[in-house]
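Could you help me review a protein record that somebody else here produced? This is what I was given.
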Amino acid sequence: MLPNVTSDGPGPRQAPAAVSPATLRKLELAAGDLAAACLAAMERSQPWFARLPAAQRSGVMLVTQTGVANFVAWLGARGESIRLTAEAFRIAPRDLARRLSLSQTVGLVRIATEVFEQHLPPLAADDAEHRALVEGVLRFGREIAFAAATVYAGEAETRGAWDARLEALVVDAVVRGPQDADALVSRASALGWDPGDPLRVVVGTPAPDARDLLGDVRREADRSGQSVLVGVQGSRLVVLLSEPPGVDTGGDIGTVVEAFGPGPVVVGPLAADLTAAPTSARAALAGLRAAPGRPGAPRPVLADDLLPERALAGDPAAHRRLVDSIVTPLESAGGEVLHTLATYLEGGGGLESCARALFVHPNTVRYRLRRVSELTGRRPSDPRDALVLWTAVVAARLASSEATEDS
């Protein structure tokens, strides 16, 4: 290891004591052997290094040779500040920083520095040059490590900015409906999203500190085995939250709600995969527009729990959903179930008055209303369920009227 070396303290880092031209020439001639020694030491010390493709190994060799050349040039530039260290990384293949982690690169720099310590000082002509080379190795190695960290920081910033743009494109495509499903799948896959996973779309207004909170959301999703894609579009926040098979979320969106500001948070229905996500997004956004019609709604609220409000706001998908989920099963049940429900609701929910209007026994009305609950999952005697059922009946009547006019 290096002996103790006194530091210059604060201020510009100057080159160490002069090294003679003869010694510099020795260093230049030894550069190739020194780089080869570094590569051999890396292979011995790092098992993963030997498994790198030949192109990556040659890239490391190129960086090492450039580093040696820069070190010799710096030693010869007496009195000048260190300014060549980053060049060793600029000439490396562009994907080298993507293939090697920062910790792996720092480990290689450490090995190269140790090889420098072993091979360079013995080339000194006297004790003064020996100390100069020892100090130079120490300081140049430190600068190389800082240069590596700078390169990786730049790569991380570039990759982060690109990922953010890609994420925004995916979310925007889901909101608008993809014109190119293959492009949507490709972009999402590049972000680590499994396009085959079921997902929900959650919408609302972003919290003032949404950027910080979304970091917590991503970490929590990672812990639960889910994936998250986020897009802030003006005054609304759109979140895609996966529900992979085998991950039991129960429809709970967890800490995602914390990233939303005041106001309603609407959760779209579960989409089978990414290409089906626009349907969930449309329902969620329609629910967000209609949510003011139900100020007492829970937070978050399912888009399907806002069907009456969405239908009143003119959402045709809500009309179809109400008819398909309520009226169609009641019509298929036969008998007078649907007619009894309509009469019961039109009469204000009075059991006896409904029975008199239909000329049946009250128990018959009770039986038919139980059938309504069994077929739709909604109780006519519950005020909220009654609103949903009545809106479905009206939507079916309007659809039937429009069909008659068209014919």
Remarks:
- The CA atoms of residues 180 and 379 lie 43 Å apart.
- The chain has three domains: 21-158, 194-312, 317-406.
- The first strand starts at residue 199 and ends at 204.
